Fold:
Amino acid sequence: METLRIKDIQSIILQIKNIIDSNQEKLMELDSVMGDGDLGFTMTKAFAAASEEADKSEEKIPGKLLTRLGMIIAKTSPSTMGTLVATGFMKGGKSIDAYEEIGPEGLAVFFEAFVRSIMERGKSAPGNKTIIDTLFPAAEALRSSVNESLTEGISAARDASLKGLEASTKMKAQHGRAAYYQDDSIGKQDGGATVGTYIIEGFYRHVLSQTLNA
Structure:
């Protein structure tokens, strides 16, 4: 698979929605340990609205559609995580709104802007046990793979995000409600970091399916 177009973005958002729907209870459980327990609900609601918007959109530019979906997520799920994810989609989409199709370079630019905007909005960085710990390494992997195929790039990003999730579990939380637990947060899987892997997984599943069916 060489590039992503509008129909691909629509499919990717549906993939993310389905992954989160399937893992709603898991997200609830993870969030109930160090949060308020509603992460599964807010993310399910956010991507249900995003998928519905993507399906009916007549937008032709992928980046502009992604920006629009960020706005929908912000409106639908104005929680902390909803706001961060929404910001990522809005800023990421804006960074590539001149691309008619998204290739390896465009996808790297998108996720670099995505994670950078979350870092700025959340005033956080890698190593703080957040969604950044899975998205930052994924963005780095995509940047390192810009001369490879889209399939190879997103596969590397998926591997990096999962390794990031494993590493983040050993970290001490520094932000949000989880930070109140200090050393007790070490060894516990972070819900936000898990959401980051689901976003990457959605891209991965779509690209892989298209590659296998080509």
Q: What stands out?
A: The chain has a mean pLDDT of 92. The radius of gyration is 16 Å.
